[in-house]
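Module 6 notes. Inverse folding takes a fixed backbone as the condition and produces residue identities as the prediction. Think of it as a translation problem where the source language is geometry and the target language is the twenty amino acids. Below is one complete input and output pair. Work through it position by position during the lab.
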């Protein structure tokens, strides 16, 4: 018996007559009789007999009825669960984000997502770009957000916004008197910044080379947030992204870095697995939040 035949059998058992069952199912009585005959042919035994003008269940039908009720409840539960998935009321979603994005626009995107899909559980990871792409490739994360648009095998990358590089200084530093800072201004300073082989490091190396000097950080970092303690302790000055809300940290001053270096804010996901409905909702919310997030930059 298929699902439709089970539904017909259950309805006839509940209603007691073909006429009432046909009305309940919104079908004609001849069509209902035909469905019942097909079900009995497949089963190999009768489900109902007419005794004294009444439709009477056979002993086999009485034995099958509890199972039909259970299957109906399971099918209704399945339908409700599928509808909840469609409307964002069920399931889980895993987001891997770099620290700068997680501290800036990602919270707003998640807040907007929770309004749209209140029943979906969100698992959030803060990881480096290398770990992020591995998680996406292994299916350990559904979506990723990072300050990087470098092409990766089997990873789709969408640019959803931009940031830039700024100079992070200890409070009271001599360079704070300048409205902007360039490579030449950093001569003699202990430089804290990205590894030279990172996307940001390559961009800065080119900017320094054009200015006739070398990009040579004495303290290398993977993520900009790691520079906070070093700069606060007066270890040196840092070139970092402007995405992190630096004004929220004590004893730090920021200045623009020129020439301006534009950093891509990217949304990433695996090309090997299609995105679900709820994953596409978060994808849209991240796009919206990333495109409108413009951090306050020093004048």
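Target side of the pair, the amino acids:
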């Amino acid at each position: 018996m298929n699902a439709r035949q089970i539904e017909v059998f259950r309805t006839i058992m509940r209603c007691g007559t073909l006429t009432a069952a046909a009305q309940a199912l919104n079908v004609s009585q001849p069509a209902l009789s035909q469905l019942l005959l097909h079900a009995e042919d497949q089963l190999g035994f009768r489900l109902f007999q007419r005794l004294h003008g009444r439709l009477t269940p056979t002993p086999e039908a009485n034995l099958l009825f509890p199972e039909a009720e259970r299957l109906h409840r399971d099918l209704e539960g399945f339908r409700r669960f599928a509808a909840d998935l469609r409307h964002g009321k069920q399931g889980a979603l895993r987001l891997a984000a770099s620290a700068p994005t997680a501290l800036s626009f990602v919270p707003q995107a998640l807040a907007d997502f929770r309004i749209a899909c209140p029943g979906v559980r969100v698992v959030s990871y803060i990881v480096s770009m290398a770990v992020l792409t591995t998680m996406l490739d292994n299916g350990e994360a559904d979506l990723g957000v990072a300050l990087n648009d470098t092409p990766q095998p089997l990873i789709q990358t969408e640019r959803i916004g931009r940031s830039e590089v700024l100079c992070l200084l200890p409070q009271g530093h001599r360079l704070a008197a300048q409205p902007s800072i360039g490579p030449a201004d950093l001569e003699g300073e202990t430089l804290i910044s990205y590894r030279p082989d990172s996307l940001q490091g390559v961009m800065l190396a080119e900017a320094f080379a054009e200015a006739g000097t070398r990009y040579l950080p004495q303290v290398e970092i993977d993520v900009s947030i790691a520079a906070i303690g070093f700069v606060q302790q007066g270890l040196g000055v840092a070139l970092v992204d402007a995405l992190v809300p630096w004004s929220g940290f004590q004893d730090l001053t920021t200045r623009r870095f020129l020439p301006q270096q534009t950093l891509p804010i990217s949304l990433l996901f695996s090309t090997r697995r299609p995105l679900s409905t709820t994953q596409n909702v978060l994808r849209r919310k991240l796009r919206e939040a990333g495109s409108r997030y413009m951090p306050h930059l020093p004048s």
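Reference fact for the lab report: The chain has a mean pLDDT of 89.
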